[in-house]
Amino acid sequence: MQIFGVDIGGSGIKGAPVDLDKGDLAEERFKVLTPHPATPDRVADGVREVVEHYGWSGPVGLTFPGVVTGGSTIRTAANVDKSWIDTNARTLFGDRLGGLPVTVVNDADAAGVAEMNFGAGQGRKGTVVLLTFGTGIGSALFVDGVLVPNTELGHLELHGHDAEKRASSKAREDGDLTWEHWAHRVQKYLAHVEMLFSPELFIIGGGVSRKAQKFLPHIEGIKAEIVPAQLQNNAGIVGAAMHAAQGH
Ligand code: BGC
């Protein structure tokens, strides 16, 4: 069975049909740049462009880089336009896609669900925390495989700063930090999350998961196992489609 997955990020809107049995993209993904400002209207246009690229006419699962409650209402918008707050995203995207059935879920939660089912978290019990390092820091918390949604651990305070402003992948690029310097910040962040939740496993997702060997060797003193995400940057697309398949 296939469902279309779309991952809306701070820099790109990516999508593809997803093979739900394999937990993988059924076709190569297509991406458009996230508009700036990333207003609901302009993002919805980008989503339509991605979906129309495939001539898709079935169900569509979408991620959003902020808190999503009740499967539709956007509550926060740290890295997109603030006019998203209180938007009914399900209605917005459904209308823009000509009435196709749509679901909306937080981007890190989607990536986490994909990794727990098809990637680095398969069969893992206990407390597992997936963190995505990109424009911001996203989090997905699992207890015995069950998701606790909208945890927003990227906004924990770290040395008086919003953690994602210090330790996201964007912070590394904007600050022109070496991998080692950035890894040091990530280590402090992981130590803080570990102090709060004592997870057995950290899964590191987002675009940096492809470059894990550049920074993971510099991270020390964390008791939990730390592994890169296996679906890498496709986890959000796959998780969005899985969420839609669950009939949310
Ligand atoms: C948002 C989260 C999101 C993360 C990654 C954060 O700024 O608050 O909801 O998961 O960025 O996109």
Briefly say what this structure is.
The chain has eight helices and 15 strands.
Q: List how many beta strands DSSP finds.
A: 15
Classified by CATH, the class of the largest domain is Alpha Beta
Enumerate how many helices there are, as a single number.
8
Question: Which range does the strand content fall in?
Answer: 25-35%
Helix content: 25-40%
Low-confidence stretches: none
Radius of gyration from CA coordinates: 17 Å
**What is the CATH architecture term of the largest domain?**
2-Layer Sandwich
Q: Give the cofactors and ligands.
A: beta-D-glucopyranose
Instruction: Give the rounded overall mean pLDDT.
Output: 97
The count of domains is 2
- What is the CATH H-level superfamily of the largest domain? ATPase, nucleotide binding domain
Inertia-based shape: globular
Please identify the structural class as seen in this structure. Answer: alpha/beta
